[in-house]
Amino acid sequence: MNVDAKLLWDVVQTLLIAVIGVMNFLNNRQRVTTATITKLESNIDTRLDDHAERVTRLEQDLKNAPSHADLAEIYREMRKLNDSLSTMNAAISAQTATLGSLKEQVARMDSFWRNKS
Fold it and tell me: What is the largest CA-CA distance in the chain?
């Protein structure tokens, strides 16, 4: 019985060592996984803080951006300016025509006075 008891004790020891080894392996694996998750969480927190600052800056930029009413006012002013420029262009064209006809009359008068004497 002594040999059977020793064999049984060796089997029990081997099984216990195997169970302890498997538990140690699983524990180490869980520790590495927990450390990786902790590192990822801190990295995500840092990235989220950076995103929060960026979103805040974007919100401030959007507050300062022109609204639809502002753009409508700008378009109205541009239309007024365009109308004014069109009016000035028409006036300059009329003045050019008037100066052209005046030039012709002056040329005729000059030619008349030069040929008369």
Answer: 163
Q: Going by C-beta distance under 8 Å and a sequence separation of 6 or more, which residues neighbour residue 77?
A: none
- 53 and 98 within one domain: no
Give the domain range for residue 99: 67-117
Cα–Cα distance, 18 to 93 (Å, whole number): 104
The number of domains in the chain is 2
How would you write the pLDDT of the chain (117 residues) with one tens digit per residue? Answer: 688 888 899 999 999 999 999 999 999 999 999 999 988 888 887 777 788 888 888 999 888 888 899 999 999 999 999 999 999 999 999 999 999 999 999 999 989 898 885
